[in-house]
Amino acid sequence: MTDTVSVSAVSKWFGLKVAVSELTVGFRPGVTGLLGPNGAGKTTLMRVMAGLQVPSQGTVSILGVDPRQDPAIYAKMALVPEDEAVYERMTARAFIELAARLTRVDDPPGRAQRVLEIVDLVDSAERKLGGFSKGMRQRAKVAAALVTDPEIMLLDEPLNGADPVQRAKLIKLFVELGAEGRTVIVSSHVLAEVERMSHRVVAMVDGRLAAVGDLETIRAAMTDKPRLFYVECAQPRRMAAALIETEGVVGVHLDGDRIRIESSDAGNLAHTLPRIAVEENLVVNRVEPVDESLESVFRYLVKGG
Amino acid sequence: MTLVRHLYTRVMKKGRFIGLVALTLVPALTLAFTPLTDVGRNMATHYASILAGPGFTFAIATLILTAATLREERDGGTLPYIYMRPISRQSIAAGSITAGILAAMSIAVIAWMATVVATLFIDGGVSDTLGGLVLFTSATVGYAAIFVPLGYLISRSLLVGLGYLFVVETILANAVSGLAQLSIWRISLSVYLGLESDVDESVVDEFLGTVEPGAGGGLAKLAVVVALGYAVLVWALRKRDAL
Fold it and tell me: What ipTM, to 2 d.p.?
């Protein structure tokens, strides 16, 4: 399968700050998660792919065309920007119809009605966007993107602010769009969110490509990393003594009432810890992963790569 | 057409519209409170001197409106909704400048009509007021061609625009004759005064300086300004970051 979106040796810097560095990656039909911690350069990459920002170096190709050179490609491409920016004084319906009219699609009112139904905004269609919650704005933006029936969809943190029910609906929608053969690129800093949409992931850290591939590969890379946990219990010395025998535990350190555990097999630790507590009759008050953040995982991937 | 209508509607916010109309009523109010008998001039000269002086408030109103045409889209983060459309950059540039012109013209018509009413109030003849519409229209086109691209390119375009109006167009253009030739206000005045034969020579000299009155020459200069502004905006849309 050929890439529909190609990013070739793209760098983007703002003064001395490098937002994206020498990044080469391709995207195919289906949903791809663009994953990375805040500040990783996801939004800049999205904007460069969308043609909103000029790459300092390198090239971008959307269906074989550089969007900066040929705006006609925008008939086949849509972006849901990260920020909440919408036309505050405009109703949801007018906003979506504007997108349809500017893209010169047939029957803007009819299409607007259909996408309003898809994103569950029919009841609020005549309300001004300024009064919308963050989640509703996100759905309005998704609708404005969908109304042009694009082949390529760039969705920058589209689930921000959505409530759990809407989040589930939007994820289902993105999966369906991908299954229809559209190229759907969804950026997120939440691994679990991306996991529900796609198995293919492009991971970024500090403007660089950290990993590309399916989630299983990335997860495997993550499990190689010794991870830190704090355990709070009534008798930390006894617990520490029992834990040191556990497979995968590479370090145990007493820190007051807490035990700092370094483990290369978090899965095994999760099974063993409750068993030890039962067998030794120890009360565990709290288990806290220290470096579970996506950022630390990605930093590890970068260092390992 | 959709783009022009959208940009026009967006820039014509109610509060801004009321404020700018109030600002551009200054020449009409000045006319209303300085009766002809007090200044001892003919109506054409009196009207021209007020338009050329206090009428400059219209240039400020035009700056505020036209610089906001694309700047508000950029600052508000909504530019992608316009930019990412299968519309040529030339069409976006032309549409933006047209929207700026139409917005400023809406204010211009009100400002001009107010001067007509003020002229009637002081018992002057309305025949001399038609030139006011010519002045405002010329200024609208010239300033829109400069300030729409400026608004797109520079985040503090309002400040830069005010600096241009007050430092370049009023102070430097008086001191440096070459700069007077580049002043949009003087070019617009030259179009207006080129059509008015009854205005005293002293007033023409006072406000135009080294710029020769003449509708043809003024319009030609304005055409060049519009072509340059349009070219700069097309270039910026193509080559510069949109966000």
Answer: 0.84
